[in-house]
From TrEMBL:
<feature type="transmembrane region" description="Helical">
    <location>
        <begin position="892"/>
        <end position="917"/>
    </location>
</feature>
<keyword id="KW-1133">Transmembrane helix</keyword>
<feature type="transmembrane region" description="Helical">
    <location>
        <begin position="1306"/>
        <end position="1331"/>
    </location>
</feature>
<keyword id="KW-0732">Signal</keyword>
<keyword id="KW-0812">Transmembrane</keyword>
<feature type="compositionally biased region" description="Gly residues">
    <location>
        <begin position="191"/>
        <end position="200"/>
    </location>
</feature>
<feature type="domain" description="DUF8003">
    <location>
        <begin position="814"/>
        <end position="886"/>
    </location>
</feature>
<feature type="transmembrane region" description="Helical">
    <location>
        <begin position="1374"/>
        <end position="1399"/>
    </location>
</feature>
<feature type="compositionally biased region" description="Basic and acidic residues">
    <location>
        <begin position="202"/>
        <end position="212"/>
    </location>
</feature>
<protein>
    <recommendedName>
        <fullName>DUF8003 domain-containing protein</fullName>
    </recommendedName>
</protein>
<dbReference type="InterPro" id="IPR058316">
    <property type="entry name" value="DUF8003"/>
</dbReference>
<feature type="signal peptide">
    <location>
        <begin position="1"/>
        <end position="29"/>
    </location>
</feature>
<feature type="transmembrane region" description="Helical">
    <location>
        <begin position="1337"/>
        <end position="1362"/>
    </location>
</feature>
<dbReference type="Pfam" id="PF26010">
    <property type="entry name" value="DUF8003"/>
</dbReference>
<keyword id="KW-0472">Membrane</keyword>
<feature type="region of interest" description="Disordered">
    <location>
        <begin position="171"/>
        <end position="216"/>
    </location>
</feature>
Length: 1463
């Protein structure tokens, strides 16, 4: 359709409609935009100037990096043939194999629908520079090993391409003409390298210029680096006429395919030459493929080697996967200057939209120039690595990417020009990462990133000298700024670092330094160990003049010091050189230093043990307190908190600087010392301000150093022509530490210092100390008080030492905010306990002494201190009663009128109560006065009145069992005491008396069974042992219970379970009546009686009494307090003895013998048995002699453990040893009731017997008597051989012993009642006393032997009010046991009292001052000692009470035998 130039309105409307419809269709389809545009209509008539509107036509002309598939058919007719032109085999539409090399003479195109295979060692080339080869294949392309395709411009499109081993697609040094207007080839004749992606290197140095400022060929085609399609440039020459000495540039290669396999190489490198010319620059490589894979494959557009290396080319890669292929675009080596290779080229990664610059670690001083960066769409990232050197020579530039900007591996990024340091670089990225690289900015930097990471890297910002005070750079790491590996950020002007997360300088060498430095808005700032945060950079920095005008020449404190700005933005007029603002936590492990340091609106500031926050030596070089100098003398020290030390040189004295500033709110810098012209001037300390008036630091933790010390003068002697030397400079004075805080911890080993500097040699005076002020915010008082400072470190405000004769400077001062009432001191601590403060101030003298206190009282701690004269106090323990701090006992005593009235009152109460108890006892129990002599009852009366515990005698009197005695053969006594250690047991061999009546084997089995039943289990003894330790009366009760159970078990066994198989009598076996087990009342003695069965039919049976002699009768009991020895005369024994002794005589004898035996004590048998032996000789045997028998004391039935039993040996009256016939017995009556006394002559008929030795008589020989009784008799001589075995509790036998009755039972009962009440009262009073020692003491006393302290009284009352003499006596013995047991608890109380009062050892953590115990030390023992005495008296009184109950007939103890036997 043709349209004339003069279109009608309808035609124009139609054209516009077509355009709009086309745009709408392309937008709705989301396809690649196709914009209709006017194209020249090539009509047949050839008219020009007419436009054709429609879709753009694909460009199919030559020199394109890519061709549309529609161009294949269009250029088919221009294609070379497989066989005709390429010398191959086959067809390009199917498969063409080229098997021999071919050189094309001109630009050529190869188009086909099939596959092209280039065989091994085959080269397809067009060697003419700029020669173009186009391969457009719908099939695959394979370049065999050791083969190549080479040409100036190579455009290859195929379905898949394979480049085999050692093969190549090559355009090295085959470049055509570079784009017009470029300066890639050097114009001089210095042999410099050609430029393209990077500048070519030049080895020539111009005078006054650095090698980095001189280069060869320049870069070009920056704007098209994302679509590179330019030839490289030729290198320069050293000979004007021989341009070819320079290496040719690299050509162009464009590849479009699906899968690209590169085991060889794709190269567009610059040409390499010798040192007569420069290397050519790399060309351009554009590759678009789905996958790029290979094995050691190589894609290269590097510069060539020459005198000066060529610059790298440009590479563009568009892929989905890349693996196993190296990409190179570095500059070429420089033969003339090996350390200055050509500049790196560029790589544009389409997949990541990233620009990558790498010089393959080739050192270079030549820049790869980057110009204006693209506007949206933004690049994804910029990566500069491997010694690449980037230059951005612009006044202003912005690098803005959506991802990372990364500098790595020795790379350098330089912005601006050194000769004009007024440029400004704006760099914005998500992450800014530097690793072993450098960023150099001439001018100002605006860096913004979410994450800033520097490792072994540097950022140097250099501003022009004219604009140092106003040029400001900013670095923002919003999430993280992490600096490590000796990295540094340095600026010679103002620098602000912002963020919202973490700023961390990791360790040694990590540095941020600037002329004025502001760090703000971070959550946490960490200055690691060895790291440095400093401003200004040097002590003589240009900013020092501004600081001097603000602080050193004016008495006015800058307003911003006390009330700084709230916005925390960098202010070039700020009075601070280093400010950290709006940071939550500041952790200083390294060094933070500056002339005027301010940390504002921070929550926590921590200076660790390695950390230093310092303004030392960075104050005023002169100042308001500068030291004076006398002509020819030494300089005086600078003054500040005090007067500087005098400088003294010989007779010349120079006064030190004066004191100045406000000690309450110091904000002055220290002053310098006087300088006599020796060239060694000193400066004072700077100013450090933490917090502000309205925004104090919440917590300051100092474990390291916080210092603003004055500078010390160097120790150098300066010789002059006058006198040979000049005096030294004075030391600088200390600066100021102004701390607005809420709380502070000054740990052990930390230091706060404003020390003056040392004077210089010779004679320089020391600088004065500075000032330290703690301005506490919102000091808590009263109940809200908490300590605001913990000070364990050191605060130094001392003046500096003078040198030689120079004097030391005065000390500075430490001050704090005025403290409210109750608090004092610099740190507003509580006034000491015992003082009060009722006015505002900090002096310690304001804490005044409280009024005196009562004894055992101490002032109590009051949170926030005491603010009123009435100081609260409390007793030293809760055991004492307010307000006089008496113990519970003292409180009771003084309530009742004092000690004397209390004792009188208590005594009266106890006497009245004792009388009431006695009256009540008489009414309830009856009169128990047995003081009258009582007669032993005769036949028919109860024996209980004579000896109540022998209950069996009643049985004898009540029932006569004659039939048992008529069939009784023998009584076998059990060995042992029926205890857990010595249980009952029978010997296995039957006694001689029953050998004829039992089967010996069966008897042995019977004995084994009986012994097994009599033995105790281990747990029974264990329970007894435990109870013995805890409460012995319970242990005794347990033992009696087990004894009773053991006896019952034996009786049941013998009576009903055992079949009596050991007996020969059939009748006995059938009726189970041949054996009977019985025991004494105390369950210690047991025996088995053997009876006839009635079917023996022997007239000599049963044996008569005189046929049984010698016969042993063993005592019951064991000689202890609870079980005294006694003769248990049961029915059978009484009936048997009645054959020889009248019953009434036997009853009286048994009663008298038991009365004597009850005083026999185990452990003292030798002495206590003597009266028994004597009594038998005087009271018993003379009367028994009339009956033809005699009894003697004997021991028998010894066990393997040494236990033996005592008893009587009944024998014929004539079997008496010689020494058993005292002369006195000759005059005694023959029997009770005899009417006349006997005479010597009257005894001829029966009293004289043949003298016979006890042990030599047939009856008592060792073979006779010992065999039958298993022991020996005891007399006054042999009794001494008994071993008295003393037990651990033997001393208690002096308190618990059975004694003779004394009568007066009513008085004894009254005494016991009084003693019970006294015991109970003293026990309670003692417990009240020890309650003041501690509840632990009371529990220990009461529970050491559980219940022993409180049960004696209850047991005593129970015994007093019990019915029956026998029961009352038994309960009284239990009462006595509890009483003696409780002595242990009293001894525990004595031990506790001794440890507490005399040794000062407590049972609980509450410490009591000795002065509070002085009144108790002398009297504490009285109650325990009285209680011991009462218990001892009580024990003896109980013994008397028990004796009165058990022995009601005191005639039993009559010393005259006649009175004993009187009716």
């Amino acid at each position: 359709m043709k349209v004339s130039n003069s279109r009608s309105p309808c035609a124009k409307f139609f054209l516009y409609a077509v355009v709009l419809v086309s745009l709408a269709l392309s937008t709705s389809a989301h396809s690649e935009s196709v914009i209709l545009q006017p194209v020249e209509a090539l009509s047949s008539s050839g008219d020009e100037g007419e436009l054709s509107w429609g879709p753009p036509k694909p460009r199919c002309d030559a020199s394109q990096p890519s061709f549309d598939v529609k161009c294949y058919a269009k250029r088919m007719n221009e294609s070379l043939g497989c066989e005709s032109d390429l010398g191959g085999v086959g067809s390009l539409d199917t498969l063409c194999r080229v098997r021999s090399s071919i050189t094309l003479g001109q630009s050529s195109i190869i188009v086909g629908a099939g596959t092209l295979e280039i065989a091994h060692h085959v080269n397809v080339s067009c060697a003419r520079p700029g020669c173009e080869i186009i391969l457009l294949l719908k099939g695959n392309l394979t370049v065999g090993s050791d083969s190549s395709i080479s040409g100036g411009t190579l455009t290859i499109q195929a379905a898949n391409i394979r480049v085999e081993d050692r093969s190549s697609i090559n355009s090295t040094a085959l470049a055509g003409t570079p784009p017009p207007g470029t300066s890639g080839t050097p114009s001089n004749f210095e042999g410099a390298g050609g430029g393209h992606g990077g500048r070519g290197a030049s080895c020539e140095r111009n005078e006054g210029k650095d090698q980095g400022d001189v280069w060869g060929g320049d870069m070009y085609e920056w704007e098209t680096l994302a679509e590179p399609w330019s030839h490289g440039s030729r290198g320069g020459t050293t000979v004007e006429e021989k341009f070819y000495l320079g290496g040719a540039g690299g050509g162009r290669i464009a590849i479009s395919t699906g899968e690209l396999l590169i085991n060889g190489s794709i190269e567009a490198d610059g040409g390499t030459v010798g040192d007569k010319g420069g290397g050519g620059s790399g060309g351009s490589i554009v590759i678009k493929a789905q996958t790029i894979e290979g094995k050691d494959g190589r894609i290269s557009a590097s510069g060539g080697t020459g005198r000066g290396g060529g610059g790298g080319g440009r590479v563009k890669l568009d892929y989905k996967q890349l693996e196993g292929v190296g990409i190179f675009y570095h500059g070429g080596d420089s033969l003339g200057c090996p350390q200055n290779a050509g500049a790196a080229g560029t790589l544009f990664d389409v997949m990541f939209q990233s620009l990558i610059v790498s010089n393959n670690n080739k050192k270079s001083k030549t820049d790869t120039v980057l110009l204006a960066f693209t506007v949206p769409p933004l690049w994804g990232s910029v990566v500069i690595k491997e010694s690449a050197r980037i230059g951005i020579p612009l006044q202003w530039s912005t690098i803005r990417v959506t991802g990372q900007v990364k500098l790595m591996s020795g790379s350098v990024l330089i912005f601006g020009l050194a000769e004009s340091s007024s440029s400004e670089l704006e760099l914005m990225a998500t992450d800014f990462v530097m690793e072993n690289s450098t960023l150099l900015v001439y001018g100002a930097l605006r860096l913004s990133a979410k994450m800033l990471s520097m490792t072994s890297s540097h950022i140097d910002i250099i501003a022009s000298q004219e604009k140092l005070m106003v040029v400001t750079s900013t670095i923002e790491g919003s999430n993280l700024a992490y600096i490590q590996g000796s990295s540094a950020i340095r600026s010679n002007a103002n620098l602000a670092i912002y963020g919202q997360g973490l700023l961390q300088l990791e360790g040694p060498g990590d540095t941020i330094m600037a002329q004025r430095l502001f760090v703000s808005l971070f959550y946490n700032v960490i200055v690691g160990s060895g790291a440095i945060l400093r401003a200004p950079v040097e002590a003589d920095s240009p900013i020092q003049e501004q600081i001097t005008s603000m602080y050193c020449e004016s008495h006015q404190c800058p307003t911003e010091v006390l009330r700084p700005s709230e916005d925390c933005t960098l202010n070039i007029t700020s009075p601070f050189t280093l400010q950290i603002c709006r940071v939550e936590d500041v952790d200083i492990h390294g060094e933070v230093s500056g002339s005027v340091v301010h940390i504002q609106r921070a929550r926590n500031v921590t200076i660790t043990r390695e950390g230093i926050l310092s303004a030392s030596g960075l104050g005023c070089p002169e100042g308001l307190g500068v030291g004076n100098v006398t002509s020819g003398g030494a300089g005086g020290g600078g003054g500040h908190g005090g007067i500087g030390g005098k400088g003294i040189l010989g007779d010349l004295k120079s006064e030190g600087g004066g004191s100045y500033g406000n000690s309450e709110l110091p904000c002055e810098l220290g002053s310098g010392g006087g300088n006599p012209g020796s060239g060694n001037s000193t400066s004072g300390g700077g100013l450090i301000v933490l917090g502000s008036m309205y925004h104090p630091v919440t917590v300051l933790d100092v474990y390291g150093v916080l210092a603003a010390d004055g500078e010390s003068s160097a120790r150098v002697d300066f010789s002059t022509k006058l006198g040979g030397q000049v005096g030294g400079s004075g030391g600088g004075s200390g600066g100021s530490l102004l701390l607005f805080l809420q709380t502070m911890i000054l740990a052990n080993g930390s230091l706060l210092s404003t020390t003056g500097g040392r004077g210089g040699a010779v004679g320089g005076g020391g600088g004065a100390g500075g000032r330290v002020h703690f301005h506490w915010s919102d000091i808590p008082t009263g109940e809200d008080y908490v300590p605001i400072a913990t000070v364990e470190g050191h605060i130094s405000i001392s003046g500096g030492d003078g040198n030689n004769d120079g004097l030391r400077g005065d000390n500075g001062n430490v001050s704090g905010k005025q403290c409210p009432r109750g608090l004092y001191g610099t740190y507003c601590v509580e006034c000491p306990v015992g003082t009060y403060k009722n006015e505002t101030g900090s002096a310690k003298e304001l804490c005044r002494e409280c009024p005196p206190l009562p004894g055992r009282a101490e002032h109590t701690y009051v949170r926030g201190g005491v603010s009123k004269p009435m100081c609260p106090y409390q007793c030293i323990s809760d055991k004492y009663r307010m307000p006089h701090c008496y113990t519970v006992l003292e409180d009771l005593i003084y309530t009742l009128g004092g000690p004397y009235l209390f004792v009188l009152f208590l005594s009266c109460v106890m006497v009245v109560l004792a009388l009431m108890l006695s009256v009540a006892r008489m009414k309830l129990v009856g009169n128990d006065d047995f003081s009258r002599p009582a007669m032993t009852p005769r036949v028919g009366l109860h024996v209980e009145q004579s000896f109540p515990f022998l209950e069996s005698l009643n049985e004898v009197l009540e029932t006569t069992r004659v039939e048992e005695s008529q069939c009784h053969i023998h009584r076998m006594y059990f060995m042992g005491s029926n205890s857990f250690n010595e249980p009952w047991h029978l010997p296995h061999s039957p006694p001689d008396q029953i050998v004829d009546f039992v089967y010996e084997d069966a008897f042995n089995r019977f004995v084994e069974e009986v012994n097994g039943l009599a033995a105790y289990q281990w747990w029974e003894g264990s329970v007894h042992s435990i109870l013995t330790v805890l409460a012995y009366p319970f242990a005794w009760s347990w033992q009696q219970w087990r004894r009773r159970e053991k006896l019952q078990r034996l009786q049941e066994f013998v009576h009903s379970e055992y079949d009596h198989a050991c007996l020969r009598s059939c009748r006995s076996r059938a009726l189970y009546e041949g054996l009977k087990v019985a025991a004494g009342p105390d369950l210690i003695l047991a025996y088995i009686d053997v009876f006839l069965g009635g079917d023996e039919k022997r007239p000599d049976l049963p044996p008569k009494l005189m046929e049984r002699v010698p016969m042993s009768i063993i005592f019951g009991g064991n000689g202890t307090y609870l079980s005294s020895y006694n003769l248990h005369s049961d029915n059978l024994l009484t009936s048997l003895l009645s054959q020889a002794v009248p019953a009434t005589m036997w009853y009286r004898l048994v009663a008298g013998l038991n009365a004597q035996l009850r005083t026999v004590r185990k452990g003292a048998l030798c002495t206590s048995l003597m009266p028994v032996i004597s009594w038998l000789d005087t009271h018993a045997n003379p009367w028994l002699f009339e009956q033809g028998v005699r009894i003697d004391l004997a021991w028998c039935q010894a066990t393997a453990s040494g236990y033996y039993q005592l008893g009587l040996l009944l024998n014929h009256a004539d079997d008496i040893p010689q020494y058993f016939q005292p002369a006195s017995m000759l005059s005694m009556p023959r029997s009770p009731g005899s009417g006349r006394l006997g005479s010597f002559g009257h005894l001829e008929e029966g009293m004289f017997r043949r003298p016979q030795s006890w042990h030599l008589s047939p009856s008592y020989s060792s073979l006779g008597s010992r065999r039958r009784i298993g022991g020996a008799t005891l007399d006054t001589v042999s009794v001494r051989s008994l071993e008295d075995k003393h037990y651990p509790i033997f001393p208690l036998s002096f308190l618990l012993r059975n004694t003779r009755p004394v009568g007066q039972q009513a008085s004894v009962g009254l005494a016991i009642s009084l003693l019970i009440l006294a015991d109970l009262s003293l026990t309670l009073l003692m417990l009240l006393q020890f309650y003041s020692v501690g509840i632990e003491a009371v529990l220990l006393i009461v529970l050491f032997l559980p219940l022993a302290s409180v049960l004696p009284s209850a047991a005593g009352l129970n015994a007093l009010f019990s019915h029956g003499s026998r029961r009352s006596a038994g309960l009284a013995r239990v009462y006595a046991l509890w009483n003696v047991t409780s002595l242990v608890n009293v001894l525990v109380a004595l031990v506790i009292g001794f440890l507490h009062y005399n040794m000062g050892l407590g049972l609980h953590t509450t410490s009591v001052h000795p002065k509070h115990m002085s009144s108790e030390e002398d009297t504490w023992w009285i109650l325990p000692a009285l209680l011991v005495l009462i218990k001892c008296v009580q024990a003896r009184t109980i013994d008397l009470h028990v004796a009165n109950l058990e022995i009601q007939d005191r005639s039993l103890y009559a010393s005259d035998p006649i009175k004993f036997w009187e009716p």
